[in-house]
Amino acid sequence: MRETTVGIGAGAAPLDEVGTATDMVLNIGPQHPATHGVLRLKLVLEGERIVSAEPIIGYMHRGAEKLFEARDYRQIIMLANRHDWLSAFANELGVVLAVERMLGMEVPERAVWIRTLLAELNRVLNHLMFIGSYPLELGGITPVFYAFHSREELQHVLEEASGGRMHYMFNRVGGLKEDLPAGWLGRVRQAVAAVRAQLPVYQDLVLGNEIFRARTAGVGVLAPEHVRAYGITGPIARASGVDFDLRRDEPYLAYGELQDVLTVALREEGDCLARFECLLEQSANSLDLADACLDRLAGLSAGPVNLRLPKVLKAPEGETYAWTENPLGVNGYYLVSRGDKTPWRLKLRSASFNNIQALTELLPGTLVADMVAILGSMFFVVGDIDK
Length: 387
Description:
Elements: E1 3-6, E2 23-28, E3 40-46, E4 49-56, H1 64-68, H2 76-80, H3 88-103, H4 109-137, H5 142-162, E5 171-172, E6 175-176, H6 184-207, H7 210-216, H8 224-230, H9 235-238, H10 246-249, H11 272-299, E7 318-326, E8 329-337, E9 345-349, H12 351-356, H13 359-362, H14 368-376, H15 382-386
Parallel strand pairs: 1-2
Antiparallel strand pairs: 2-3, 3-4, 5-6, 7-8, 8-9
C-alpha cells in the first residue's frame, strides 16, 4: 500500500504513477473542533471510506499519577479534581473514598447524603454538556443554548455551596469542606425542578428531529463483546446492552438506600442514537435521585459534615482499590501506602481512556461523513484520557 499523508481538507485520493488510486492517511487533529480537545485520529482512507483508525493520545498529559506521589492526602484532591473537568466533584470523591477506606474511617451520615446529592448534580452537569454539544457537532445549534441554561441553574447552587464553578474542591478526607448555606436545600430543589422541566425540549428538538435520527440511527454500532474486551463502561456500555452500574451493583455512599429510585438506562442497539438516549434518560433519573437525597437531608437532624483530623494525615501501610460510577463511566483509584503522609502509588483508572479505544473498532468501514457523529457519541473528555 502506498500512503499519502495529508491534513484536514484534502481532496480526492491521489494517483500513483500508473494512474490508480492510492490509500490516503488523514490526520484529524490534534487541534480540530470534532475532537473535543487535543486528540489526534490517524485515519487510513480508501476513497470516502475509513479502512483503519488509530487514536493518538498524550498531548495533554500532565503526569498526575507521578505528582500524586509528591503531594499529601489533602493536596492530591486538587490534582485528581481536574482530569475530567466536567466531573470534578466525582473525581474528588474517588480519592477521598480510597483514603477513608485505608484509614477505616466512617464519615458522618449528613456528609454521606450530601455527597450523594452533589454527585448526582455533577452527573447531570456533565451530561447536559454532551446533550447540548453533540447536536451542535451534527449541525443543530439550538439545543446547546437550552443545555447551558439548564447547566447554569445547577452551577449556581454548586457554586454557592463550594465556592467553585468547575473545580469544586468540596470533598475532604473525612467528609466535606464545610456545612451547607442556610436555605440551600430549597434552592437546589427549585434548580432541579427547573432542569427537569427543560428535559422534554431535548426530546422534541433532538430526538424528534429526523435529520438527527438519520445521522445517528444504525451508525457506529458498538458490539457488547467489544465493550467487554476494551473495558468500556458508563452510558456507552449500557447503550450496547451491557447492564452494569456500580451504584446498583456495588453500592457506595447512600446508593444502597436509593435502589427504589435508581434506574439504569439501557439500550440494545449500541448505535450513536442509543448512546444519546441513555445520556438523556440517565439525566432524568439523576434528578429523581437528587430529589430523594433532598427529602432525606430535610429529615436529618443538624450534625457535623466532617471529622476532626490530625494536622499531618498519614494512611497506614497497605493498599486498597476504590471505584465509583463517574458520569462517563467507572473511575478506579488504586492506592498504595508505605505509612507516609503522601501516597507511595496512586493509579487512576479513568473512564475516557478505555472508552476511546473502541474507535479502532467503530470507525473502520464507515464513511468519513459519519466519523464526527461516531466520535461525538463516545462522550469523552481528553484530559480524562491523558491524565
